[in-house]
Write a structure and sequence with these properties.
With about 500 residues, this protein is mainly β. It has 2 domains: about 1-250, Jelly Rolls (Sandwich), CATH 2.60.120; about 280-485, Jelly Rolls (Sandwich). Helices cover about 15% and strands about 35% of the residues. α2 (about 20-25) packs antiparallel against α3. The chain is elongated.
Amino acid sequence: GALEELSGQPRRALVDEPGPYARGVIAAKPVAYWRLNEMAGPVAESALPGPSPRARLNGLVAPYLPGVDSGSGCGNEEALRTSQFSGPKQINRAMHFVDGHLAAELPGLRSSSSAALWFWLGESSGASERGGSLVRLPGGDTLQVRQDAGHRARLFFRPAGPAEDDGKAAAGRSRLAADQWHFAVLVRQGGKVRVFIDGNPQPEIETASPDPAREGTLRFGEGLEGKLDEIAVFDRALTAAEIASFWQASGIAERRARETAARQRAERLAAERARPPAFPAGYGTTVDALKPALHAGLDSAPARLVAEQGVSFSPGTFAAFNSGRLRGSQPALGNAYSVSLWFRNNLPNNSQPVTAYLFSRGPDRDPRAAGDHLGIGGTHRRDLTGRLIVFNGNAEDEVVAGTTVIPPGTWHHAVLVRQANRVTVYLDGAAKPDIDAELKSTTAGTSQFFLGARNDRFAPLQGHLAQFALFDRALTPKEAVRLHQASAQPKGSPEP
């Protein structure tokens, strides 16, 4: 190839590094094992030592995609990870079947045999009613999977016979999440057939089928739209204990348990954060003890702020913003000042270029939008989406961002501290700032400020604000944290 000619060196062969799962499968002595880690080519190589059968790729098959437990390669799993399937320095890979299949000749399979594989049907955004074959044995017996419009998958075993004869198909008990990897094992023992899923010792399907022909071709992925990985064939009936040991070695159960616990915790915290904060009776006193230049609880119309159209007030939900603003002015506000506020954004973080601006200091209707603007990033830049941002206007066009993604529909506390050309933003009571960066000041001493939209009315907030305080000095880190501690609200931010 061109690279070999350019370097003058032969291409190095990709060396497969089996992890604990793969080593366990090899130790169980399958007659065939295709890990599907190939980068290209028409053949899936055997992972077994010594002479062992290869498999042929036919039709449209996309190789070298993220495999079991490697992550999806997008969103929160954009960075792929190592796993129990491959070695510590290698990412497990899989193949995506679109209009193709994998075929292999395995002469001499006994009346007792097993086929084990992993499958994944796609992200929930691509949910549709469809189905395909996971494995078809030489005699025609087929293990199928069907996905419904709700993105749930179900297994079916169809004995050899006309493809249109649905009455003979035995259905699995479970409806599986189609956007998760699943471990399916088809076990034949004479005329008895059992199908196991995800290490469960109780068969998903248990039925009978006449002892089929043993000579011929095994086919994997016919009619399937999804990924297959780690295909192993045994010339004996695997026991439930062996299948459970493979599942245990994969580490998937432990990862799902951790992810479920984290998701449930985040859901509980998000549910708590969805409710308006119930501030203690003395919270306003704590704020006032820090001597703000202006403090407005926003549970009623504030005396020193002007409510423009699209803002309403309630003791239960505080200031509700629907494309409106609050306008204020603080004379002699210098280049060292601080803002404390509670906010809830109701828009999805991917709904517009900037999800919302919460606080803005700058001249009203300035087309250059000069000033300090605290908001939530949107789709303008992927690295800003859902994160707190501070922008200094169109002329300098500089933005700094936090690291925490703010889930829509939840209440949070932010403290913005401006000191000369440095901005610091504290989020939800954390001592470590979410933003701490150099950012040129472009306020030019303006006294005007706005809540719920930028000074040029860009990116108005759809949501709520509460307990706004403006200080004519830079708060200390301890003071910023104290403003949250006194609220009796949860510390830290839930995951989106």
